[in-house]
């Protein structure tokens, strides 16, 4: 076979050899091929071999660690505008109420996104995709949730579709109409009934819904109501759960067979056990804890109890303006107690599983999409130590060099 591209003499090619969802031992293991050639054909991984591979093009892998392209399974693009003033207020000890009164908070982003033309949303968020790609991310999930009305929620989903079409990063959409209660509604339930009313139109863009299940936002009863209505319309479920208080969102996620329960900073033993006994993925986003100077999710306890975990950035304008996957891995390792192997699997195979891409992305395997991140490292175990260095040498997307060389 004549390959289209060969990465010649890679120091390490690192990937899980097991099919996700990975938990326990399979989560803690990576298969490492040393000094191998990686052949790509028609955008797919075709060969991993010690022998020389014939190819039209070659790139040197010498001194490089090759990882599966990183999959960020939880961000809040597309948004519009910045909330740095609110961030500075928080550093000066101002309360959530002070910030709301000064016009900050999530509703300020809602106002900005409602007022932005779709083209402006596309160009504003395109830059983030470019920067994420340069940090090794090849697939990103984005959500609506800054519209809180039918027109703007659908606009956000259309923008995500356009972003995926014009940028080589793969973009996966989630509907998060149930993100907050807009000013136009006086109760969570009346707003959710309105959202349920346009779920059939959402279905043209995505088959996944998410909800912010939290004290003073959508409580357990309202969350259950919404998720059952969504299930009846063929949607899969994700939840923002147990982020600020231990309300029981992760238990509900496990009960309803949701794909994931995300955040979990406040999740106690009962929630951890419920997740461990289910296939619902615990998505940890330690960047948010860092950004807000708050506690961290109990990653070690989740892993030890047998939960499936994934890592993501939670990139958004308010609570976490971080998208660097290596910084998030560093935090997962140093603050949540994960091993470097668990962190890599959680940002590749398991995060691809969360997005329904377990059969094509997140691993380096013959027949899988040739989405690869080449790091300027000799050993993958250097990642959490050198996370702030310029370690991404090149990114291959669908078999082509998309960044570096
Ligand atoms: Zn989120």
What does this structure look like?
The protein is of the alpha/beta class. The chain has two domains: 3-68 and 364-404, Roll (Urease, subunit C, domain 1); 71-354, TIM Barrel. Helices cover 35% and strands 24% of the residues. It has helices at 24-28, 84-91, 96-101, 106-115, 118-134, 150-166, 188-196, 199-202, 220-232, 249-255, 269-276, 286-292, 299-305, 325-334, 340-347, 349-354; strands spanning 3-15, 31-41, 44-49, 55-60, 65-68, 70-72, 137-143, 170-178, 208-213, 236-241, 260-263, 281-284, 309-311, 372-375, 392-397, 400-404. The strands form two sheets. Strands 1, 2, 3, 4, 5, 14, 15 and 16 form an eight-stranded mixed beta sheet that branches. The chain has an eight-stranded parallel beta sheet with strand order 6-7-8-9-10-11-12-13. Helix 11 (269-276) crosses helix 13 (299-305). The longest helix has 17 residues, at 118-134. The protein is globular. The protein binds zinc ion.
């Amino acid at each position: 076979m004549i390959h289209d591209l060969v990465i010649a003499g890679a120091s390490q090619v690192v990937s899980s050899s097991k099919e996700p969802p990975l938990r326990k031992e399979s989560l803690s293991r990576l298969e490492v091929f040393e000094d191998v050639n990686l052949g790509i054909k028609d955008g797919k991984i075709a060969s991993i071999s010690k022998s020389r591979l014939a190819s039209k093009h070659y790139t040197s892998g010498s001194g490089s660690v090759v990882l599966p392209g990183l999959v960020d399974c939880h961000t809040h693009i597309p948004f519009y505008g910045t909330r740095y003033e609110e961030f500075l207020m928080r550093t000066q000890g101002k309360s959530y109420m002070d910030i709301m009164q000064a016009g900050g908070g999530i509703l300020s982003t809602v106002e900005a996104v409602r007022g932005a033309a779709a083209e402006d949303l596309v160009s504003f968020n395109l830059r983030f995709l470019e920067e994420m790609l340069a940090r090794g991310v090849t697939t990103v999930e984005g959500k609506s949730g800054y519209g809180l009305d039918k027109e703007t929620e659908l606009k956000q989903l259309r923008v995500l579709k356009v972003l995926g079409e014009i940028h080589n990063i793969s973009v996966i959409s989630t509907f998060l109409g149930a993100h907050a209660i807009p000013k136009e509604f006086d109760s969570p339930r009346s707003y959710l009934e309105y959202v349920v009313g346009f779920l059939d139109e959402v279905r043209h863009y995505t088959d996944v819904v998410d909800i912010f299940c939290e004290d003073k936002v959508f409580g357990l009863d309202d969350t259950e109501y919404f998720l059952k209505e969504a299930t009846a319309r063929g949607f899969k479920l994700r939840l923002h759960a147990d982020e600020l208080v231990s309300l029981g969102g992760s238990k509900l996620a496990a009960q309803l067979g949701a794909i994931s329960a995300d955040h979990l900073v406040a999740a106690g033993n009962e929630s951890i056990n419920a997740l461990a006994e289910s296939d619902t993925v615990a998505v940890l986003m330690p960047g948010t804890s860092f950004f807000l100077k708050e506690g961290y999710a109990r990653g070690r306890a989740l892993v030890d109890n047998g939960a499936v975990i994934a890592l993501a950035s939670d990139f958004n304008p308010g609570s976490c303006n971080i998208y660097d996957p290596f910084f998030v891995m560093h935090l997962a390792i140093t603050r949540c107690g994960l091993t470097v192997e668990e962190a890599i699997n959680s940002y590749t195979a398991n995060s691809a599983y969360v997005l329904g891409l377990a059969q094509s992305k997140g691993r380096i395997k013959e027949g899988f999409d040739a989405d690869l991140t080449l790091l300027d490292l000799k050993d993958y175990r250097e990642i959490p130590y050198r996370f702030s260095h310029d370690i991404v040498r090149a990114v291959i997307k669908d078999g082509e060099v998309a960044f570096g060389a």
